[in-house]
Inverse folding.
């Protein structure tokens, strides 16, 4: 088992909306209090924020499963991420808060965590982007 966030995509995301999501996530990644890496979690690599997907992980021992969010149907889009509450969990939750606030009907977001475990992510998103207080209880 482990601590998992689930986010199966219900529908594809339009290019304009995806650009807004990417901009928000870029701001979060720039302000991240934790070190992040590419999906493989290797030190010295960068998260991916691209035209079709957003993907990142923690670094080395602080990595677990990569977080991947795709704009359209893709084999990379597994719809869940097991973070085991490692430090990058904050950024995973914050990214899910962003997508929920941008397109609440596009992903079905839920988690093994309780609502109080999402307070840090909601507050962080609000502090960085001025949004992010709306989110369903996990």
């Amino acid at each position: 088992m482990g601590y998992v966030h689930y986010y199966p995509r219900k529908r594809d995301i339009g290019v304009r909306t995806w650009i807004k999501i990417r901009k928000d996530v870029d701001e979060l990644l720039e302000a991240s209090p934790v070190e992040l890496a590419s999906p493989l979690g290797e030190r010295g690599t960068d998260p991916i924020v691209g035209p079709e997907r957003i993907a990142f992980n923690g670094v080395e021992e602080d990595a677990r499963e990569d977080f991947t969010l795709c704009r359209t149907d893709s084999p990379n889009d597994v719809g869940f991420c097991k973070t085991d509450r490692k430090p990058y969990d904050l950024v995973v939750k914050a990214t899910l808060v962003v997508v929920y606030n941008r397109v609440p009907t596009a992903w079905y977001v839920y988690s093994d965590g309780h609502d109080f475990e999402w307070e840090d992510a909601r507050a962080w998103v609000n502090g960085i982007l001025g949004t992010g207080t709306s989110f369903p209880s996990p």
